[in-house]
Amino acid sequence: MTGDEREQRLVFGEVAEQYDVARPSYPDAVFDTIIDFGALRRGDRALEIGAGTGKATMGFVARGLDVHALEPIPEMGALLRAKGVRVEQGLFESWVAPAQPFRLVYGAQSWHWVGGDDRYERAAAALEPGGTVAFFWNKGRAWGGALQADNDAAYAKFAPQLGGGSQQWSLDWVAEGLRACEAFEPPVRRTVTWNLSYTTAQWVRLLGTHSDHRILPEEQRALLHAEIGDVIDRHGGRVDVTYDVEIYLSRRV
User: Fold this and answer.
1) pLDDT in tens, 190-208
2) Could you tell me the sign of the dihedral formed by the alpha carbons of 34, 37, 42, 45, in that order?
């Protein structure tokens, strides 16, 4: 992992409170899917990798799991700790697993930031035999139509290096990584689809928490966000987003 990549994965601390307010959580069906797959019960121990401010954490806590949250960014961890969650500061790559293994190891919107060729083996080592690993991401669909075209034009004008705000990214590498690790059973993918609506201000605030936007020079970021805000205002002042939550599941053999 290069220095630039490491810097990008840690910039969320600059806007921790904004992240907590602006970022979407996950629908109930995501948590239910994982709990059903793992036959999880109240009191089961769970390790969350890159917990952030708790967008996924609280869903599992509400279902009675005993979550141990691992989070490398102090500002993010402080917000989650204030919600009553046990948070350990640190990177998963250098984390030392406790003697007692977990029934669930998961990462929400975070596994792509974890480095190390042995990361899947490390996840398996933290699990008890038969335990479940779950990695999942909210993936917003392109808006389509004139709104999408105008949005892409805003990126082309002010931040062409980002390639537009609607590019789709593949997560096939997650299944490949699980499949290549002998400690895991063949992975299973599940998808949960849901919808959210954002006002112009809410969407721009959300963009301000995206790492690729955070690393832009401040002036460039301000111009881009102002232009995107104008685009949305011209199209009614609101955007409806369809999210597909891709969930990759497996069990330790």
Assistant:
1) 999 999 999 999 999 999 9
2) negative
